[in-house]
Write a structure and sequence with these properties.
Order of helices and strands of chain B: HHHHHHH
Strand content of chain A: under 5%
Number of helices of chain B: 7
Number of domains of chain B: 1
Helix content of chain B: over 70%
Order of helices and strands of chain A: HHHH
Structural class of chain A: mainly alpha
Number of helices of chain A: 4
Radius of gyration of chain B: 21 Å
Structural class of chain B: mainly alpha
Oligomer: heterodimer
Shape of chain A: elongated
Shape of chain B: elongated
């Protein structure tokens, strides 16, 4: 597995553990009433699971397993490393930004928190568009 | 990667990009209101990402990579028939699954924001039925029996589809 794919997959594992831990804490809160904060993280937890874990794992495995570019198409068999790093950083910055801002926004909406949330959405959308750009040419028959 | 899988994966990436852009619009809308129509896109966002992206990607990749159907041996008993795509199941039925899945997703994505304005109930039921048809035809089209242990016959079938293993191909490419 190439290093960049490993980064995708390891990051997704971290989100998996974090989201399940958070899920356990949310359940514990229903029983022990730990704090108001836990009632605001439901959406963030769902987002961690769907984007941070499942989507990021799918992106990483696709990056690893999909047919590679032919030698004549470029020097890098999996496409630009810079673009891949940009996708990883943008996606994870977006996921984390949303995770840390959304609970505070839900507890007390403020313009600067809303702006950060909007930025998190733009970062994630940019990551997905970048991934589409990176992978499109690799969706091809194995033997040309 | 077979043609069927290529179309599934390309469509899934299109839905991923669309879903993410709608997600960004939903978050921007919290900061700077873009209009009441944007908030109504939440259902489309979920349908595009959960069904259009994740489910469709899984369908396409499973069709490509799951163990092939058990092979029918050549009458001479020496060489297996090369059956190509049919070793995965019925291609026609897999295209039908594709049509149902995508029609269901698009209907959901379009109807969900219109729910507040129009009575979309019957069409939304139709969209759900299309998704049910997609799920049943996907599982029934050989996928159920392709979830199996790779015995000797399975290995021969795989060798028939991919004469060289992925590891060998990878090593050859790295060497180049």
């Amino acid at each position: 597995m190439p290093p960049l794919a490993r980064t995708f997959v390891k990051a997704s594992f971290i989100y998996l553990i974090a989201a399940f831990l958070l899920g356990a804490l949310i359940m514990l809160d229903r029983w022990l009433d730990l704090g108001r904060w836990f009632r605001t993280v439901y959406l963030s937890q769902l987002h961690l699971l769907l984007v941070g874990w499942i989507t990021q794992l799918a992106l990483g495995v696709a990056y690893w397993m999909f047919p590679r570019f032919l030698k004549e198409q470029g020097p890098r068999p999996r496409g630009s490393n810079r673009l891949t790093w940009a996708v990883i950083l943008s996606l994870n910055a977006g996921v984390l930004l949303r995770f840390f801002c959304e609970p505070f926004y839900l507890m007390g909406p403020q313009a600067w928190l809303a702006a950060l949330l909007a930025l998190s959405g733009v970062l994630q959308a940019a990551a997905m568009l970048g991934f589409g750009w990176l992978m499109w040419g690799r969706i091809r028959a194995m033997e040309p | 990667m077979p043609k069927t899988t290529r179309l599934y994966v390309k469509m899934s990436i299109v839905y991923l990009c669309l879903g993410a852009v709608i997600g960004a619009l939903l978050l921007i809308n919290r900061w700077t209101p873009l209009g009441p129509a944007v908030a109504a896109l939440k259902g489309s966002h979920v349908a595009l990402l959960v069904v259009g992206w994740l489910t469709q990607l899984i369908f396409g990749v499973a069709w490509w990579l799951f163990p092939a159907l058990k092979i029918r041996l050549h009458p001479a008993g020496l060489h297996p028939h090369r059956r190509g795509q049919t070793q995965r199941g019925s291609e026609t039925l897999f295209w039908f699954t594709f049509a149902c899945l995508n029609a269901g997703v698009v209907l959901h994505a379009v109807l969900s924001p219109l729910r507040v304005v129009f009575q979309t109930g019957p069409l939304e039921v139709l969209a759900d039925l299309l998704l049910v048809a997609a799920a049943i035809t996907f599982v029934g089209n050989g996928m159920w029996v392709r979830v199996r242990e790779l015995g000797k016959a399975g290995q021969r079938a795989d060798a028939d589809v991919n004469p060289r293993s992925a590891a060998e191909r990878g090593a050859a490419w790295e060497e180049r």
